[in-house]
Amino acid sequence: KDSSSSGTKEDENEMAPQAYGPTPTAGQMAYYKQELAGFVHFGVNTYTGKQWGDGTEDPDIFNPTNLDTDQWIEIFKNAGFKRVLLTAKHHDGFNLYPTEVTSHSVASSSWKDGKGDVLKEFSESCKKYDMDMGVYLSPWDQNIPCYSTDVAPDYNDVYVKQIEEIFKNYGGKDGKIVEFWMDGACGKTDTRPKYDIERWWKTLFKLNPDIVFQQNYGAPLRWVGNEKGYASEESWQTMNKEYVWNLYDSQGKEDKAYLHKGEPYVEGKAPSERNADVWSIPEVDVSIRAGWFYDSKQSPKSGKELAEIYFTSVGRGSPLLLNIPPNKEGKFDDKDIASMQSFRKILDNTFAVDYAKHATIESDASRGTKGLFKAENVLDDNYDTYWTLNDEQTKGSFTVTFDKPVYMDVIELQEYIPLGQRISSFKTEVMVNGKWQSFGDGKTIGYKRLIKGAPVTAEKVRVTITGAYAVPLINNFGVYKADKSIEEKTGSSVPGKIEAESFSSKKGNVFSEKKAPDNGYNLGGIKTGDYTIYKGVNFDVMPTSFSVCYAGEKNSSVVLRLDSADGPVIATATVKATGSYGSDSYSVADFDVTYSGVISGKHDLYLCLTAGINIDYFELSCKDMFEFDMSSVTVRKGDEIKVDVIRKNPSDSEVSVTVETSPGNAVHGKDYLDITETLVFKSGETRKSVTIKTVKNSEKGELLRFIVALKKPVGGYVLPSTLLTVTIED
Question: CA of 506: how far to CAs of 533, 605, 608, in Å?
């Protein structure tokens, strides 16, 4: 498909476009197509309760009583994963196989009388289940004496010997190791050995020319810049190797923001300007639990949460590397397994039917005149056929028409990246009842882009490429209906606050005006008999109380009804005059919900009004709602802060909620200490506190953030938006 440099422009447009900028290797393309990789963190940390060991651990504490690597691989395989990596050695220096370079390994433990080999059992399980195998080998080794500038032998000789040992003695499907992880965490720059990274890379390529490996200096894979499970909305798979290499080599630093987003190749840039020159995949790594190693106090992410991560990783063009830590027995926890099964079910339900397969398609233009690059190519099942335009055309669109309207909420796009990444912006639209409306837009597409919006019944879908650095290529298009559990919610939710002026429709001349507290908007112009409608409100739980924030010169009443203006009464608020309509006169009045049944799912709410007041908002609440006393806080490295958890509308019962940290671009163990702490509220108690600790280290750079969440309420409720963002500054 290479185009010739001779002949007319018309002739060239009958051939495939030339490759643009850096392009992916065969190994990188294989990983893209696999999409999902498993990670297994196992070692002495499993038995100490730490996430980062320090190298002083006694090897004898490693004692899995029921190691079952078959179970690990089977769980991943059943969930659709195509490769799995194991931590052969973490930063503490303990090896899961009997290496020749040190005695700090399973050989020095009493497990299987010192004859055990976790890596071997893992390798055999990968072969048994036809699973590709990968290995994590931490360069940072806090146990081996030669991890120092002045202790022989040269640590690079030791590290290369371990690489060669592993490739010689272990392998998964086809006897190969397809991925190798070299974590960026390291010792102090003034005492640790100088890494000979070029030598490591040459060794890996010699052992497997199609290998992909992770390092942040222009390697085939790079860290995505966070451990939370998301790639950038604008995610370039290309970067400038010299920039990241020199940053590390001269300063020992990494640019997390650059690793997250990457950089496009731009043809025609001056040689003196930085430009992308290498293809490096921003691999999204995340753990099913808050920590990477097993902690019984932590709970796994739900199948729904994992599915959402799929959309923010694979759905933004990056493979997903998901960690499941085995417990002390050496097995996956039943709760983690249940989450994986739920995750697979959600994805299967979502992508079971592609409504575009039986649709027709037309484009505003296509390349050449022979139909080799027609729009129909995006609907076939051939990865290597695509729709594209004539050279120098960087904008264009295609429209897909269904034979009958379809209920959908997911659009899938794929860019043909074997010829380079080009597309910088796009938009999608749907035709509903004969009218076009926006569905979602974005920046990059890359290997795959998933756009999930509110469900609609669409007659057509239109995709427009609005920006590209070279002629765009699209090789696949799909339309799906997401599983109910991951549908985009429309409207407001209960429990929760609803702004009165955010009505969907109304009866009467009520209007939005800016007279509410803090210069906000309110509902004004109210006459007796008016009502406002709030469509598609999600009832997650049955509310018990109804609050109204209002101001007015007369006593008045507000009746909240279900699904119609004369529907069942949910609650009635009889309010007293506040004295004026001014923004400083607003008051909140609370009332009981009087509806006797159970309300669940989506409903329309009718706020039936009486003259004499303006309304800022109304709120439906339940008993024992948990929230933080703040939504964000900034701290310095090494600080401790106390965070209060508030219990609203307390009942007489004992209730509890768990506080759990999770990483953003801050790394647990390195930048902050993980916590998983359950708070028990006895009858009458409304406030509890937890202590959050950050780590004082010498690294300088960007602001770091991590998340504190409320989870697993027992007897109470946590609003989905209840998160505390902690920012760490130098």
Answer: 6, 11, 10
Separation CA 488–CA 687 (nearest Å): 33
Shared domain for 427 and 526, answered yes or no, is no
Query: What is the DSSP annotation of 348-413?
Result: HHHTS--TTTT-EEEES--BSSSSTB-GGGGGSS-TT--EE--TT---EEEEEEEEEEEEEEEEEE
Pair (239, 94) in one structural domain:
yes
Tell me, yes or no, whether 550 and 643 share the same domain. Answer: no
Distance CA 557, CA 543 (A): 20
Match 């190519």 to its residue by tokens. Answer: 377
Q: How far is CA 227 from CA 125, 568, 664, in A?
A: 27, 47, 6
CATH number at residue 452: 2.60.120.260
- Quote the mean pLDDT of the chain: 94
Angle at 246 between CA 241 and CA 250, to 5 degrees: 165
Both 340 and 240 in a single domain?
yes
Chosen domain end from 586, 604, 621: 621
Neighbour-count burial for 154-179, b at 16+ CB within 10 Å, e otherwise: ebbebbbebbebbbeebbbbeebbbb
The vertex-652 CA angle with 650 and 658, nearest 5°, equals 60
Tokens for 324, please give them.
């499941």
Q: Which residue has the higher pLDDT, 704 or 308?
A: 308
- Dmax (CA) for the chain in angstroms is 88
Q: What's the whole-number mean pLDDT along residues 694-722?
A: 85
- Give the tens place of pLDDT for each residue, 208-242: 999 999 999 999 999 999 999 999 999 999 999 99
Task: Identify whether residues 431 and 309 lie together within a single domain.
Answer: no
Cross-strand bridge partners of residue 496? 620
Domain boundary residue among 460, 486, 512?
486
Is residue 21 domain-resident? no
Q: Does 7 map to a domain?
A: no
* CATH number assigned to the domain comprising residue 134: 3.20.20.80
For residue range 638-654, what is the model confidence (pLDDT) as tens digits? 999 999 999 998 999 99
Q: What is the CATH number of the domain that holds 649?
A: 2.60.40.2030
1-33 pLDDT tens trace: 344 444 567 778 899 999 999 999 999 999 999
Calculate the alpha carbon distances from 356 to 81, 385, 387, 465, 484 in Å.
26, 16, 15, 19, 20
Give 411-452 pLDDT, tens digit per residue. Answer: 999 999 999 999 999 999 999 888 899 999 999 999 999 999
Over 80: is that where the pLDDT of 189 sits?
A: no
Which pLDDT score is estimated for 7? 57
Residues 568 and 631 grouped into a single domain: no
> 721: which 2 tokens?
């938006």
Inside any domain, residue 706: yes
Residues 444 and 552 in one domain: no
Query: Domain tally for the chain?
Result: 4
Domain assignment present for residue 688? The answer is yes
Residue among 575, 567, 525 at smallest CA distance from 546 = 575
Cβ-defined contacts of 106-115 (< 8 Å, 24+): 106/59, 106/62, 108/59, 108/60, 109/59, 109/60, 109/61, 109/62, 109/63, 110/60, 110/63, 111/62, 111/63, 111/64
Handedness of CA 320, 321, 325, 326 (dihedral sign): positive
Q: Are residues 199 and 305 in the same domain?
A: yes
C-alpha–C-alpha distance, residues 715 and 712, integer Å: 10
Q: Which amino acid is at 131?
A: M
* Residue 88 pLDDT greater than 90, yes or no: yes
Listed in sequence order, the residues at least 6 apart from 332 whose beta carbon sits closer than 8 Å to its beta carbon are: 71, 72, 75, 324, 326
On whether the CB atoms of residues 638 and 670 are closer than 8 A, the answer is no
Q: Can you tell me which residue has the tokens 């009388």?
A: 113
Measured in whole angstroms, how far is the alpha carbon of residue 459 from the centre of its chain? 31
Between strands 625-628 and 655-663, the pairing is: unpaired
CA 274 to chain centre: 29
Q: Which structural domain, as residue segments, surrounds residue 531? A: 496-621
